[in-house]
Amino acid sequence: MKISGYVGIRKSNFLLVHPQFPAFTYFKPQLTSSSTLRITSNNDKNSRLITKFKYSVADRKFSSSSVNASVSKPNTGRSGWKQGGSSSLYSRPSLLGMKNERIANRAKVYDFLRGIGIVPDELDGLELPVTVEVMRERVDFLHNLGLTIDDINNYPLVLGCSVKKNMIPVLDYLGKLGVRKSTFTEFLRRYPQVLHASVVVDLAPVVKYLQGLDIKLSDIPRVLERYPEVLGFKLEGTMSTSVAYLVGIGVARREIGGLLTSYPEILGMRVGRVVKPFVEYLESLGIPRFAIAKLIEKRPHMLGFGLEERVKPNVESLLEFYVRREQLPSVVAQYPEMIGIDLKPKLIGQQNLLKSIIDSSPEDFGSIIEKMPRVVSVTNSAIIKHVDFLKDCGFSLDQVRRMVVGCPQVLALNIDVMKLSFSYFQREMQRPLDDLVAFPAYYTYGLESSIKRRHKMIVKKGLKCSLSWLLNCSDEKFEERMDYDTIDMEEMETMPSFDMNTLMEQRSGDESDSEYEEDSDDEYV
Question: Which residues fall in a compositionally biased region of kind Polar residues (predicted)?
Fold first, then answer.
C-alpha cells in the first residue's frame, strides 16, 4: 500500500512540513533522499523556497517538488499578489492612491463651486460629496428653497448637509409643526445651522421645552418663524435662566407663555449681560420693580432695546430737552417705546414744529413731553390739523398754546369726536371758552359715557362746577359728589395726573376716542 501526502504551511520566515497518513496504514516510510531548505530575506525580490523530498514506501519511490512560492514586499501600485506569473483574483488600492484620488475629486468640486460664485475656503476639513454631480444636487436644492449664492457664502458649511439625510428630514419636521413654507427662505437665512440638526436629538426636545413654558402648540410655528435661533439653545442654559429671572422680578407666571410668544427673543438673552442691567437701570430712574414687571408683560420687546446704544442716550436727550429728572419714571412708563427709537432727531423736529405753529418755548416742549411722551411720534400733519381745529373753534394762538401745554393729547385725539364734544359744550353746556382753556382734557372724555351723563346729573341737582370737578374723577367718586350740598374746592384738580400704581389701566373711553397718527418708521434696536 502506497501513501503520498504532505501538507505545507507557509509562514513569513519558515516552512513546516509533516506527513499525513491515511487510516489503517502500518508501513514505515523510508526517507531515501535528503531535503534542502533555503530561506532568504524578504528584501530579495526573486528568492525562492525549494524543497525536494524523495521517499520510498513498499519498494516504490516518489518525488515531489514544492511550487514556486515567491515572497516579495508589498507593491505600492495597484498590482496584485502574483503567483507563478498569473494575476490575482482581486486587487486592493493603496492608501496613497486613495488619498490622491480624494484630493483630485475635491479639487473638481472646488472648481465647480468657484465656477458658480461660491468661495470654498471655509470647507477645508469638512466632509463633502466626492462628485460634482452630488454637490450640484445640494446647491440646486438650496436654490429651490430660495437661498442665493450670497446666502450660501454667508454660511458655506451648509454644503456639508446631505439632501436626503439632513435637509429633507429637518424641513419635513418644521412643516409638520406648522412652520409655513413661505417662511423657509428667511428661516434658513437667519439660522442655516438647523439643517445640521437631528430631529429626534436636537429639535423635538426644544419644541417640548417650549410647550413646558406655556407656549401653546399652535403658537410654536410663529415662535420659530420669529426667532428660529431658539432651536439651537441648550434647554437648561440661557432659556431657563432668563425666564426664572423675569418671574423673580414680578412677571406673573401665567403671563410667561404669551410674553414669549410675542417676543421669543427673550429666550436668547443672557440675564447677567442684558436683562438684569436693563431692569436695574430702569429702577435707577425711579421706576418701581413691580411697574417694570408690568411693562415687560405688556411690552416684552422693550428688553431688546440696546441699553448702551439707545436707552441711556435717549434718557440724556430727554433731560436735554427740559424734561425734569423726577418726571423720567412717568415719561418712560407712559411710552416705553420712546427709549428704543432714534429719539433725538424726533425731539428736534417736534420742538421746531410746535415753536413755529403755537410759539411754544423749550420749557413748554419739556412739559408737553412729560404729559404726553407719545407726541414725539405723532405725524406733523396730524399736529397741524388739530391746531387748526382749535383755532377754528375760536381760540386765540396763546389759548391754543396753553391748551396744548396743559393737555398735549388734544394734538392726537380723534378729531371727529372732538368736534362732537365741542358742539355739545357750546350748545348744551353753554360754557365760556375759558373753561376749555383751563381744562382742555375735556376732549379726552367720552361724550356719551361721561360728559352727557354727568352734565345732566349736575343740572338736575342745580350744581355749578368746573369741568375738572365734573370729569376728573372716577364714576364712584362722582356718585359720592352728587351727595354733596356744596362743592369741596380741595377736590377740584386742574388736570388728571399719572399714577404709577394704575400703570396698565386705561380710563374708559380713552382708547376709542384717540387717534394717534404716528410715524411708521420707528425701529427698535
Answer: 73-86
Helix axis angle, 276-285 to 289-298, nearest 10°: 120
Q: Which residue has the cell 418644521?
A: 174
CB 305 within 8 A of CB 311: yes
Torsion angle in degrees (nearest 10) through CA of 66, 67, 73, 77:
-170
Cα–Cα dist 233/267, whole Å: 9
Instruction: Please report where in the chains the cell 437701570 appears, as a residue.
Output: 281
Residue 264, C-beta contacts closer than 8 angstroms, at least 6 positions apart? 223, 226, 227, 230
- What is the enclosing helix (H) or strand (E) of 207? helix 204-212
With CA atoms as reference, report the closest residue to 498 among 489, 510, 487: 510
* Cα 447 from Cα 420, distance rounded (Å): 8
- Give the closest residue to 470 by CA, choosing from 497, 498, 491, 499: 491
Q: Are 10 and 51 in contact (CB under 8 A)?
A: no
For residues 48 and 71, give the distance between their C-alpha atoms in angstroms, rounded to a whole number: 7
Q: What is the DSSP string of 472-509?
A: SS-HHHHHHHTT-SS--GGG--SS----GGGTT---TT
pLDDT tens string 40-87: 444 444 444 334 434 434 344 444 444 344 434 444 444 444 444 444
Residues facing residue 16 across a β-bridge: 9
Output the DSSP codes for 263-311: -GGGGG--IIIIIHHHHHHHHHHT--HHHHHHHHHH-GGGGGS-IIIII
Distance CA 319, CA 327 (A): 10
Buried b (16+ CB within 10 A) or exposed e, 436-448: bbbbbbbbbbbbe
Of 205, 221, 307, nearest to 264 by C-alpha is 221
CB 20 within 8 A of CB 6: yes
Mean pLDDT of the chain: 82
* Cα gap 432→422, rounded to integer Å: 11
pTM, entire model: 0.72
The Cβ of residue 415 has, within 10 Å, a number of other Cβ atoms equal to: 16
Query: pLDDT tens digits for 344-393?
Result: 999 999 999 999 999 999 999 999 999 999 999 999 999 999 999 999 99
Among candidates 415, 407, 363, which has minimal Cα distance to 384? 415
Compute the C-alpha angle 267/272/275, nearest 5°.
Answer: 50
Sign of CA dihedral 275, 241, 194, 145: negative
